[in-house]
Amino acid sequence: MKLNGAQIVCESLIREGVEVIFGYPGGVLLPFYDTLLQYPQLRHILVRHEQGAAHAADGYARATGRVGVCLATSGPGATNLVTGIANAQMDSSPVLAITGQVVRPLLGKDGFQEVDITGITLPITKHNYLIMDAGDVARTFKEAFHIATTGRMGTVLVDIPKDVFTDEAEFQYPAKVSLPGYKPVTRGHPAQIRKATELINRSLRPVIIAGRGVTLSRAFDELKELAEKAQVPVITTLLGISCFPENHVLSHGMLGMHGLAHVNMAVSHADLVIAIGMRFDDRATAMVSGFAPQASVIHIDIDPAEIGKNVRVDIPIVGDSKNVLRELCKLIEVNTHMDWLRQLDTWQHEHPSTAIRDGHDLLPQYVISTISDITDGDAVIVTGVGQHQMWSAQHYCYKKPNSLISSGGLGTMGFELPAAVGAKVGRPDEPVWCICGDGGFQMTMQELGTIAQERLAVKVVIINNGYLGMVRQWQDLFYGRRYIATPLSGPDFQKIAEAYGIRALRVTERGEVEPAVRTAMDHDGPFILEFVVEPEENVYPMVPPGASLADIIEPPVRQTLGAMPNFNL
Amino acid sequence: MTQDQHTMVALVADRPGVLNRVASLFRRRGFNIDSIAVGHTEQKGVSRMTIVVNGDEATIEQVRKQLDKVIDVIKLSDITESSIVDRELALIKVRSTPETRSEIMQIVDIFRAKIVDVAPDSVIIEVTGDTDKIDSLFNLLHNFGIKEMARSGRLAMTRGSNL
Ligand SMILES: Cc1ncc(C[n+]2csc(CCOP(=O)(O)OP(=O)(O)O)c2C)c(N)n1
Ligand SMILES: [Mg+2]
To answer: CATH fold of B85-157, please?
Structure first.
């Protein structure tokens, strides 16, 4: 069957099970869009900025575990994707970015809207392609999907010149890929698994640190079985949150810079760290030399390059979390670790990191915990980056697998709203709450247009503290409270909502939080809730930069600051 | 930690941009390349890169693992510890006068190098050998005045059975 390049792209997408494309048109994409009319089974969602397309595809991928597809035109369209691509790749999101390119004869000639997007994205993609022949389209898409979804998942970009869309070629979708240089290891080495088993059986103070890898490999049940059988407390990284139900007795929450105090203490006293699908990011480990000083480390990861990169590892196991955990569960002994678990409870009791101050102030922590209560920990939460992100990590009780979507590795402000678009498109029947900072919201709020046009019932929460709060917090704690470039005015968010035809409420007092959240929840459609919160509230606990996990600071904090060393920021 | 020199051979898919991918990786992760040499192999569609890199043990391990992750890298071997033949080619243009020419020719003979071009005030010497040999020749010629030098970077192959 002879088809043109654009048709081959569509046929390939359909064969890979794609249902949605987040995109934005332009000159070189005209033949593609014209062809898309013939494929109504491919839903196209028009975003308001290409960054939004990449974040939406990423949000969709995170929410569903399936490849999120975004599409942009050449030149500025392609460069607008860059932040979203880097963000997705850093957090191992299976995303396919398709860009249009100038016609082949103009390549390299700096023609109108030419940009070397494969060159630009080379260090921020798992792999990328520039297709120079319509006959290569099908094979390239087959490979791109394979690469995005296997091994350590990631982002692949495919750049297609306009005349490749219009050229014809024989179409046959390949049944197999041939990539001799790409053979991800998915089964853990049995000898390593045996050694790990012995360590786990012998350990007295073990902790599990679960990361995004658990979610990506859908190892929720296996993780639970391991934790329960050996009675090991489960700690998560930011992106590990919701891979283990937080209402489970063994769940202890997040570690790291804004981890819970007792969790960081547990890691600091543990004799064994079982790290699963996490990569020892510096925000999680704090100062590496002070990380888990008494512990042996078992590191289970699908990416061999992550093993030993940041932290010394005693037993590396390269493999898919689900497979490895299944094997481990068969071998490990039933255990109780009674004293250790009791010790954690005592620490938690003595250092209640998630306690919320009484009073009338509208505290952001109170907002999040109320949303948690009212949605019964059952919503999909999407966050931006900053203080509200950390409060969302600390104060929402995630009961459902894969229910937190947040930008971890890149820490991209403005991720929240477009990612929520993708999440809602991917999981239309579940409540999606988008927790935004007033700063981040203003970076990508144009996507309200997408939400309105597609009638996506996203509940948008703006934690309005009038500051780029997280940066202000560092100025407060480490730069003598000299606030510069962090006080931030905003538009009248109620009027913004109204302009988009979206219902909204502004909340300024604690007593109004609960009814407002209920109103938003019960409304059939998108809703914007603006919470005008305590402007100078800080996120605690906090491990100052350059310190180790054991050196956590808890509020009140200002008087202890004098004793701290000069941290290298 | 001690810095060691490692020789790695990467068989890579002969696709546009593959050298760029490898070079970009070294730059981004701050790995130190001493030399890199690329060329065709006996297999169609496969090129061979010989990469000489310096670093401590942890860095070298990262170099290996990160290179292995590049999808166009089909096979990567660190052959530092193997028994290998390694060669480099250098072209050296040395200042020469009628008085110094015979002395230069003597040195060239000792190193089993060749004079491949003669001009009134200079000669071009071609030499093949391992890095040490080329370095020593360079040092000896230094006094005559070196006008230009081009080195190919190291090529290497394990002896006997395949890599
Ligand atoms: C795109 C981008 N620019 C800058 C930063 C640096 N940064 C991190 S948190 C933050 C403040 C975020 O402010 P806001 O969205 O209001 O959230 P808050 O911390 O106040 O909750 C900034 C500027 C970033 N993470 N991303
Ligand atoms: Mg703010």
So the answer is: Alpha-Beta Plaits (3.30.70)
